[in-house]
Amino acid sequence: MDEKRVVHIVDDEDSIRRSAGFMLKKSGFSVTPWVSGVQFLKNLKHAEQACILLDVRMPEMDGLEVQKELNERGVSMPVVVLTGHGDVTVAVRAMKAGAVDFIEKPFEKAVLITAIESAFERLADVEGRASRAADSAILIAGLSAREQDVLKGLAQGLPNKSIAYDLGISPRTVEVHRANLMIKLGVRSLSEALRIAFSAGVTG
Is the overall model pTM greater than 0.85, yes or no? Predict the structure, then answer.
């Protein structure tokens, strides 16, 4: 895999940033260090899509607060949480909030790399979903406005007659539009058409 894989290390301890950064670089990752969660969030717009190694105990804003803020902003970057002092409850809370894994300090290189690899698998899956959504959106953009209206009705689970009534057209016309949109989407069944619709965010 030639693609550069970046890890954001968010930790107020210089020694952790250096040691984790060294281990990751030796394993072929690129590293961007951040001295606090506040600094990271301030620069989030310009931060590369990557995995986040996030320390729990930090001044100003702890790791769980940073994670909550990332979730609220809809950031899909996977998080691996760093904990110390046997903070199992904190780690569980982080996992419930969507963290991929947690590592206790002091950590071994193998444990760190395994957790980061899992995070990149999650990231690849997110990108896969985003790619499918983009493809679906392109397909739906190729439909006429009326065909999109019919598809929205189908996405609501409405029968042809109800769609026809809502749109002020005949059921036969709905059938024609439905047949045409299936051809344009390259599908044979309603379930396939709905999968594309939902992937593109069409919910009726």
Answer: no
Which ranges in 97-144 belong to alpha helices (H)? 109-141
Q: What share of the chain is helix, strand, coil (3-state, %, to 5)?
A: 60, 10, 30
Distance from the Cα of residue 8 to its chain's centroid:
16
Residue-wise pLDDT for 57-97, tens only, equals 998 899 999 999 999 988 889 999 998 866 667 877 887 78
Q: Are 153 and 204 in contact (CB under 8 A)?
A: yes
* H or E segment and range at residue 90: helix 88-96
Q: Smallest Cα–Cα separation from 54: which of 189, 45, 46, 71?
A: 71
Rg, C-alpha atoms of the chain: 23
Closest CA to 99 of 125, 127, 78: 78
In the chain the domains, ranked by start, together with CATH numbers, are: 6-128 (3.40.50.2300), 142-199 (1.10.10.10)
Spatial CB neighbours of 110, under 8 Å, sequence gap ≥ 6:
none
Q: Specify whether the CB–CB gap between 29 and 60 falls below 8 A.
A: no
Q: Which helix (H) or strand (E) holds 31?
A: strand 30-34
